[in-house]
Write a structure and sequence with these properties.
Blueprint (H helix, E strand, L loop, with lengths): L1 H18 L11 H10 L1 H9 L11 H24 L8 E8 L4 E9 L4 E8 L16 E7 L2 E7 L7 H18 L8 E8 L7 H9 L4 E4 L2 E2 L2 E4 L1 E10 L8 E8 L10 E8 L2 H17 L12 E6 L2 E7 L9 H7 L3 H14 L7 H12 L10 H4 L13 E9 L3 E10 L14 E2 L6 H15 L6 E8 L2 E2 L5 H14 L6 E3 L11 E3 L2 E2 L16 E3 H24 L1
Helix pairs in contact: 1-14, 2-5, 3-5, 5-14, 9-10, 13-14
Length: 570
C-alpha cells in the first residue's frame, strides 16, 4: 500500500514535469545530471573548501582567522550558485544567511533555498573542522589517494574536513543543483522550501540550534554528517580534574610537565610529551639511555595492550619523552583506538605513574595526576576499573557501546595539572530514566557530579595525598529515536530504493546537529561506524571514501525526490 502511494506520487510529479515541457518522465531522469556532477564536480569543489582553515583553537587569533576563512568558503559557494543559476529559468538557488555575536564565538549559519513555501525540508552539513594536529600530513593540501576500505581499494579525498564535513556539504550542494535542474520550470515545489544549511560551529557551539530558536526548526531535515542511520546519540559530559602542582622537588628526578599536543577535547591527541627533570645530571643521563627499554618492558594492566611509540630526546639536561598516536582519534570512539591503535596519553601516563609508584620519580602534582588516571581508568575505555561508578550500558547503547571515556587533554600549568576527558554516556548515567518510547533529548542532566565526587573520594582513601578536584559540565543529554517512526520509515524507504538493501541503524557517541531536534535525523554519508584508518575521523590523514560518499549522495537525492513527490501527491 505504502509503496503504491509513493509510486503514484512519483508519477504525479513526472506528469507535472512533462506538462511543463522539461522532457523528463520520471524522477529517475535526474540521474544523468546527478551522476555527471558527482563524477566531475565533487572532488574539485570539495577540495576548494578543504584548502580553507576553518577550525577553532586556543590561539587568540583563532576566531578571527576562522571567520575570515569561513567567509571565503561562503563566497566560493555563492559563486557556484551564481554560475548554476545563469542556466535556470524559474527555480534558482537563493542564498540566505543568519549571524549574530555569541559570548565566545560567532553564531552563524548560511546556505541556499529552493522554493518558498511554508513546508520546510532541510539538508544540514557543517564547514568548521577540528584542528589539524600535526601539519606534516599536509591537512590543507587536498589530494586523491587509493586506500583499502570495506574490502576493496577505493579512491579517497584526503584533507582536513574531507569527510567531516566539507565533502558531505558539497554533496548537499550537488543534490540541490540536481533538484533545481530537474524541477526548473515546474510548480513541483509550490508550497515547499528545501534548505541547504551550513553550520559554522558544529564542532564547538552548534550555531544551528540558535538559528532554529529564532526561525523555527524545519518540518523534516537530514543531517548529512554521520553514518546511515543514527537512531540514538549518547549524552556528552566534559569533566576537568585538577591537582595542585606543588613545590619543585629539591632532590631526585621528577616529572616536570606532562602535556597533550594541540587539539580539542573530542580528539585523541597526535602526541603527548613529558619532561623529566632533576638535580642529578648523571641520573638523567642514565634515564635517557635506558628509558626506552623500560617502556617496552613495562607490564600494563592488559598483557595484550598495544603501547604508543615512544621517542626519547633531550632539552639540555631535561629528558623529553614523546608518545605518538596510533589509530582512531575521534573522542567518541575510544574503543576503536583501544582495539587497533594506541592513545599516547594512556600509554605514557600508565608507564610514568608506575615509575612514581616504584620510586624512580619523586612524587609531585604531575605524578599524582598520572597515578589518578592510571588508578581510575588504566588502559580501559568503558570504566571497567570502577564499574559500579563508571560502567553503564543498556538496551540502546549495548555492551561494547556503553559509556566511554577518552582521556585526551592533560595540561601542566603554573599552579596545577589538569585532565580533560571526553565522555559519551549511556542512559544509566543520566539522572532521568528513559521511558522506552519518548523521542528526543532526555530531560534533566547526568549523574556525573555525584559519580566523580565518589571517585575522587575513593582515590583519596586508597592513596592519601594532595586532593584531586573536579569540575564537570553536561554538554548534552542522550537523544533516542524510534526507528519505527514515520520519519525513519521514509528515510528507510528511500535508502532501500537507492541501495537495494535494508537501512542499517546506529547508536553512536557523536554529537550531531540533529541532537535535540526531533524533526532532524543524522544519516550518512558513511556506511560503517568505524572512524579509524583509513577514514581517520578527527585524526591525521583524514580521508573521505569517494565512492561511498557518492552513493550517500544518491540516497540523499532519493530522499528529497520522495519528499517532493509526497507533497505533490497530497
Amino acid at each position: 500500500m505504502k509503496r503504491d502511494l509513493v509510486h503514484h506520487a512519483r508519477l504525479a510529479v513526472a506528469a507535472l514535469v512533462l506538462l511543463a515541457g522539461c522532457g523528463s518522465s520520471d524522477g529517475d531522469d535526474n540521474r544523468p545530471y546527478l551522476e555527471r556532477m558527482l563524477a566531475e564536480r565533487f572532488v574539485p569543489e570539495a577540495s576548494e573548501l578543504v584548502k580553507l582553515q576553518t577550525y577553532r583553537s586556543d590561539d587568540p587569533q583563532s576566531e578571527q582567522r576562522m571567520v575570515e576563512n569561513m567567509a571565503s568558503a561562503r563566497d566560493y559557494l555563492l559563486g557556484l550558485a551564481e554560475e548554476f543559476n545563469r542556466e535556470q529559468r524559474t527555480l534558482k538557488l537563493e542564498p540566505f544567511e543568519w549571524r549574530r555575536a555569541g559570548p565566545t564565538q560567532t553564531q552563524w549559519v548560511f546556505g541556499f533555498r529552493l522554493g518558498n513555501g511554508p513546508k520546510r525540508i532541510a539538508i544540514l552539513a557543517h564547514l568548521d573542522t577540528v584542528p589539524p594536529g600535526n601539519a606534516d600530513w599536509r591537512p590543507f593540501e587536498p589530494r586523491v589517494e587509493t586506500r583499502d576500505y570495506r574490502g576493496k581499494p577505493q579512491p579517497f579525498l584526503v584533507g582536513r574536513g574531507a569527510v567531516d564535513d566539507k565533502g558531505p556539504g558539497i554533496l548537499g550542494m550537488i543534490v540541490m543543483r540536481s533538484l533545481a535542474k530537474l524541477y526548473d520550470g515546474t510548480n513541483a515545489l509550490d508550497g515547499m522550501t528545501i534548505e541547504l544549511i551550513f553550520d559554522t560551529s558544529e564542532e564547538t557551539d552548534v550555531s544551528t540550534a540558535y538559528y532554529f530558536e529564532e526561525v523555527g526548526a524545519p518540518d523534516f531535515g537530514l543531517v548529512f554528517d554521520a553514518v546511515w542511520t543514527v537512531r540514538a546519540e549518547k549524552g556528552i559530559e566534559r569533566p576537568v580534574f585538577s591537582v595542585p602542582l606543588g613545590p619543585v622537588p629539591s632532590s631526585g628526578l621528577y616529572i616536570e610537565a606532562f602535556n597533550s599536543g594541540p587539539g580539542a577535547t573530542n580528539q585523541i591527541p597526535d602526541t603527548v610529551t613529558a619532561r623529566i627533570n632533576g638535580s642529578d645530571v648523571a641520573a638523567l643521563d642514565a634515564l635517557a639511555a635506558g628509558v626506552a627499554q623500560l617502556y617496552q618492558q613495562h607490564g600494563f594492566d592488559d598483557p595484550q595492550y598495544r603501547r604508543a611509540p615512544l621517542e626519547v630526546t633531550r632539552d639540555g639536561k631535561v629528558v623529553i619523552l614523546t608518545t605518538k598516536v596510533l589509530g582512531a582519534q575521534h573522542g567518541s570512539v575510544p574503543e576503536q583506538n583501544r582495539a587497533s591503535g594506541a592513545n599516547p596519553v594512556i600509554s605514557l601516563a600508565n608507564f610514568l605513574a608506575h615509575k612514581v609508584d616504584d620510586g624512580t620519580f619523586v612524587p609531585n602534582g604531575v605524578g599524582r595526576m598520572l597515578q589518578f588516571m592510571t588508578w581510575g581508568w588504566g588502559t580501559t575505555v568503558f570504566g571497567e576499573k570502577h564499574p559500579d561508578l563508571l560502567e553503564r550500558h543498556d538496551q540502546v547503547f549495548q555492551q561494547g557501546n556503553g559509556t566511554s571515556y577518552a582521556l585526551t587533554r592533560v595540561t601542566t600549568g603554573p599552579q596545577a595539572v589538569t585532565l580533560g576527558i571526553d565522555i559519551r554516556y549511556a542512559l544509566g548515567h543520566h539522572a532521568v530514566a528513559w521511558d522506552g518510547k519518548t523521542e528526543g533529548l532526555l530531560p534533566g542532566t547526568s549523574i556525573f557530579p555525584d559519580v566523580f565526587g565518589q571517585l575522587v573520594s575513593r582515590f583519596q582513601q586508597v592513596s592519601p595525598g594532595d586532593a584531586v578536584t573536579v569540575a564537570t559540565a553536561n554538554a548534552a543529554a542522550p537523544d533516542v529515536r524510534d526507528p519505527q517512526s514515520p520519519l525513519f520509515q521514509r528515510i528507510s524507504g528511500a535508502y532501500e530504493r537507492a541501495v537495494g538493501s535494508p537501512m542499517p541503524l546506529a547508536a553512536i557517541g557523536g554529537g550531531t546537529d540533529a541532537k535535540g531536534q526531533v524533526n532532524l535525523v543524522a544519516a550518512g554519508p558513511l556506511f560503517t561506524v568505524s572512524f579509524g584508518p583509513p577514514i581517520n575521523y578527527h585524526g591525521l590523514d583524514e580521508g573521505a571514501p569517494i565512492e561511498d560518499l557518492q552513493l550517500g549522495a544518491r540516497i540523499l537525492n532519493q530522499i528529497m525526490l520522495d519528499e517532493i513527490a509526497s507533497k505533490t501527491a497530497k
